[in-house]
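Researcher: Next entry in the queue.
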Amino acid sequence: MSAEERRESVIVAAITEFARGGYNATSTEAIAKRVGVSQPYLFRLFPNKEAMFLAASDRCLADTRKVFAQAGDGLQGEEALHAMAAAYQRLIVEDPDKLLMQMQMYAAVAAAEAAGDHEFGAAARAGWLQMWDEVHLALGADPGETTQFLAYGMLINTLTSLGFPAGHRIWSGFYPSARPTA
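Model: Structure for this entry, 182 residues:
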């Protein structure tokens, strides 16, 4: 494998490990083991654990933006909204590590901010702002629609993380395209 291919495999492994263990509880040793490389090799690809976490966070957000962009491609308004909502539901059902990684990212940034580290979250905020901007344009540049769509998405994250099954009454207020199906 080339260094770039190995770096890619580290990012994928880091998403899984950080998603399941969080920033503080995940060791670089666990990431190295998942990839099948030595820990020192990881540090040739990334300068530190924080860089691995931020790369995993960035990829998670980039993958989510890509899902939204593909789902909404060529659509406008309500059509785009429902296509993007359904695509997001598929993403978090088919790849639950994406949802868990998002939740871990929010917790890690909040913890870093509380500890006075305001740089740690800068990259995550930039990625999230890029997602807001792209969704905003896809939904017709209406700030209210963008906010509502992303607010519903965050509620979906919370309810899914808490394990509310499809069909539970808590989902009844969501538009059908945003409700889980399985």
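Model: The two ends are 37 Å apart (CA to CA).
Researcher: Noted, moving on.
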